[in-house]
Amino acid sequence: MIFIASVPPRKRWRIGFLKYSGRYFVIRLSVGGYLVVFVSTAVVVGVFKLLSMLAVSAMVVIPFFSAGNESASQAGSRLRQAG
To answer: Which terms are listed as keywords in the entry (predicted)?
Structure first.
């Protein structure tokens, strides 16, 4: 997200299927067409921050569901004891 926000205007770069040119992103689809999305860097940074927050919350929630035979409360108490 920092790299995307620090790209100066009119400078083109390409990462995989995502290409940035000026203020818009061009995403190459598998059918060979192009999907042009006009977004500002603030929106991109906001989306990345939201995704990172969701990833952190998923890291917290997943151990409760992957605890096996333990219930959520037992897993929570075990995590508190380990912490």
So the answer is: Membrane, Transmembrane, Transmembrane helix
